[in-house]
């Protein structure tokens, strides 16, 4: 029996949950899981509902029937099959830890995404992509060729539901970030903005930090300022060397990025102004 995920967002108002639940019940929709949130600050409502239909579901008929209700409620909505895996484009440079972690999870069916392609401004990770059987696109870039290179990325992204910067060490142009807004995510160390520039772990070591971590966020025009999806930290102390900080940092970057992608793939993430709502 197929399961479906219904997501909705719009202005908060009286009776929303009741109206949506009634609509599903009238069509023999059995709700398995439901979470919602009304943000007092923005006046926005967010909902994720997992349901199944014992008699099957004609998605076209569902859309035709649900559209009038959604329009009356001023709701933006999407319906997904719970088995649907977002087509994902991975952007990388030379660092392998995030890419290897994601591809390992996908290969062992432990991750709900389909990696459609990998693109990189270097060819260092081509062998890894080939080993996993993923198409690899080498897109070298210079200051002069950046517009053409980003046009190639944009073309690849047209066939993707999600774009992941898995340690892609290039700053995207405002034009590309606007094009990809809401479907591109990035991972970085949580030292930003305290330790910007080269060798952040070395800078953190010199300052004797007691916490290191990572942040996954949506890509936006403002560098590393997009809506945050997930974060994690671990404790360190004076006994940790720079090399140990780098190693621990790579571990937590891979972990946080994977968790953020899972939230998105399971349709749990909603952009709410400069923040996100994660319905669990």
Kindly describe this structure.
With 280 residues, the protein is of the alpha/beta class. It folds into two domains: 3-81, Alpha-Beta Plaits; 87-278, Formyl transferase, N-terminal domain (Rossmann fold, 3-Layer(aba) Sandwich). The chain is 34% helix and 31% strand. The chain has eight helices and 13 strands. The strands form three sheets. The chain has a seven-stranded mixed sheet with strand order 7-6-5-8-9-10-11, sandwiched between helices. A four-stranded antiparallel sheet has the order 2-3-1-4, covered by helices on one side. A two-stranded antiparallel sheet has the order 12-13.
SSE map:
Layout: E1 3-11, H1 16-26, E2 29-39, E3 44-53, H2 59-72, E4 76-81, E5 87-92, H3 97-107, E6 114-120, H4 126-132, E7 136-138, H5 146-157, E8 162-165, H6 174-180, E9 184-189, H7 200-207, E10 211-218, E11 228-235, H8 242-265, E12 269-272, E13 275-278
Parallel strand pairs: 5-6, 5-8, 6-7, 8-9
Antiparallel strand pairs: 1-3, 1-4, 2-3, 9-10, 10-11, 12-13
Helix pairs in contact: 3-8
Low-confidence blocks of residues:
none
Strand content: 25-35%
Question: What is the residue-averaged pLDDT?
Answer: 93
- C-alpha geometry: globular
Give a short account of the largest sheet: 7 strands, mixed
- Class by SSE composition: alpha/beta
Write down the oligomeric state: single chain
CATH architecture of the largest domain: 3-Layer(aba) Sandwich
What are the key terms here?
7-stranded mixed sheet; single chain; 2 domains; 4-stranded antiparallel sheet; 34% helix; globular; 280 residues; Alpha-Beta Plaits; 13 strands; Rossmann fold; alpha/beta
